[in-house]
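Hi there, hope your week has been kind to you so far. Do you reckon you could talk me through the fold, stretch by stretch? I've dropped the whole record in just underneath, so have a look:
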Amino acid sequence: MSSIPRTIRKIVRGDQHYPARLNDLFDPPSCLYIKGNIGLLLMPMVAIVGSRNASAKGLKNASHFAQSLSKAGGAIISGLAKGVDGAAHRATLGLGANHHTVGVCGTGLDIAYPPEHQGLMTTIGHHGLLVSEFPPGVGPKAFHFPRRNRIIAALSLGVVVIEAAEKSGSLITARLACELGREVFALPGPIDDPLFGGCHQLIQQGAKLVRSPQDVLEELIFLKNPI
């Protein structure tokens, strides 16, 4: 492995900056690589996840929820994927310097995936925080993304699923969050729309049905008085 770029910092488990919430995992990362504002690791985070092929309405909902929850005091965390993830990150960045987003990567922090999110990743590195358990130089592999999702689930205090099909990777994040005792929220949609099959499945399994950011705020009281 090549040397770590100066802009990327390595945090080992046990370090004072290592997020305590990750210790809830049965396999917490032995170290994290971060780029950006390390202080965001101490903020309450809400995950917004969903389909890579989200509808126009889904992208609008992702942006609306991200901005509303950010204004309430939460850092918005997601996985830098196409679709819902990207919309949530961009919407939060669009609010300005007092609003924060955290991107968890399935690659080293020097490699953008998907490649078209290079600009978004750079912006988050400057104005938010990038996190990965993979060292610089490591490219995307299929098994990296469930591992990324477990970090999103553990760092968040609640997960909002905007649109998700029955086999969506977002369901991995939601189910891990449930196992960790985090709140899980899902937006419903037309019963015959496959984009919402995963959301409906989550609701059947006990996720909270939400129609607006206020529904999330009623459950995550801490956001009204950010820590």
Summary: The CA atoms of residues 15 and 56 lie 42 Å apart. Residues 56-71 form the longest helix (16 residues). The two ends are 38 Å apart (CA to CA).
